[in-house]
Design goal:
Elements lengths: L1 H14 L4 E4 L5 E6 L3 E8 L2 E7 L1 E6 L2 E6 L2 E5 L3 E9 L6 E7 L2 H15 L13 E5 L2 H14 L2 H20 L4 H8 L5 H13 L7 H7 L4 H12 L3 H18 L4 H7 L5 H12 L8
Antiparallel strand pairs: 1-2, 2-9, 3-8, 4-7, 4-9, 5-6, 5-8, 7-10
Helix pairs in contact: 1-3, 2-4, 3-4, 7-8, 9-10
Length: 291
């Protein structure tokens, strides 16, 4: 594995153009470098797979913390607000990783195709449901990420081969040592599907006042069952999640030049003073200091 990781890291260095994320020619794929530790920062992670080549990172969600380092993968299946911190990075040994956005429709299709071949559909509830998974990459998975970067480094290769490489990554993950557990989590029998509908509703109605009862109805679950399933998957309560999404959206609007009082209205706050207090508590600085 060490030789594969060395090759993986060398490819990242060849494609990195600046600190942070450098997009490749495959949509949703990029490489990442930091030459010094990065402070704990609130950020919204869309569904993605991160493959680690070097350094260490901690993502905190609610009371849970996920550490991933050299040779590990980090996956989140739903949009989730995290506090991300790069804990190990230097000019001599920079933090290096590759990221790939997850297409949940394609992932679900791959599960169906696998189960059609195995004739063994998942019909049990997963024991440890979480939309975040950290594990150690197999040689096959590391090989695929090496190929993903190579293909993504060439525009023509990316256009012709990019989807095939991404599909194989889905396949290898879903048939790996932890593949059955992943398929349990993502199957229609698990809670991720109804919770996903509620999450989509939150993101589509960020300017509205949203209640847990409304989300439970969308998920076709009782309020108690929905609350417990949501917190188990997302590591925060529904109301904590809603507040985080609203504040993250407000920060985007502020960075685009919108006035703070207008941004607070756009994300559903009726009280600007409440918005300012919660924004400062969440990000560590007031809306007026957002650049």
């Amino acid at each position: 594995m060490s030789n594969k990781i060395d090759e993986f890291n060398q490819l990242i260095k060849q494609n990195v153009q600046h600190e942070g994320v450098t997009p490749l020619a495959i949509e949703g794929v990029g490489v990442l470098q930091w030459s010094r530790p990065q402070a704990r920062t609130p950020v919204l992670y869309e569904p993605l797979i991160c493959m680690m080549g070097q350094g260490e990172k901690v993502c905190s969600v609610g009371e849970s913390a996920f550490l991933y380092k050299k040779g590990d993968y980090f996956i989140n299946f739903l949009p989730i607000p995290v506090r991300a911190e790069v804990t190990s990075a230097s000019k001599e040994i920079p933090f290096l990783s590759a990221v790939m956005s997850i297409n949940l429709v394609k992932l679900a299709d791959m599960i169906t195709r696998i189960e059609r071949q195995e004739k063994n559909a998942i019909n049990t509830e997963p024991e440890n449901a979480s939309c975040i998974i950290v594990g150690q990459a197999s040689d096959d998975l590391m090989d695929l990420f090496i190929r993903l970067i190579k293909v993504g480094s060439n525009t023509t290769d990316a256009a012709i081969l990019g989807d095939f490489v991404m599909d194989e990554i889905y396949y290898r993950l879903l048939t790996s040592e932890h593949g059955y557990a992943l398929r349990q989590l993502l199957s229609q029998y698990g809670h991720i599907q109804p919770v996903s509908r509620a999450v989509n509703f939150i993101h589509d109605n960020v300017n509205a006042s949203i209640q847990v009862e409304e989300l439970a109805s969308i998920a076709n679950m009782s309020k108690t069952s929905f609350f417990n399933a949501f917190k188990k998957l997302m590591h925060v309560s529904p109301m904590q999640y809603i507040k985080s999404i609203k504040l993250q959206k407000a920060q985007i609007l502020l960075k685009q030049g919108m006035q703070a009082n207008e941004a607070s209205f756009q994300v559903g706050y009726n009280s600007f003073s409440q918005f300012s207090r919660e924004y400062k508590r969440f990000f560590g600085f007031p809306p007026s200091q957002t650049f």
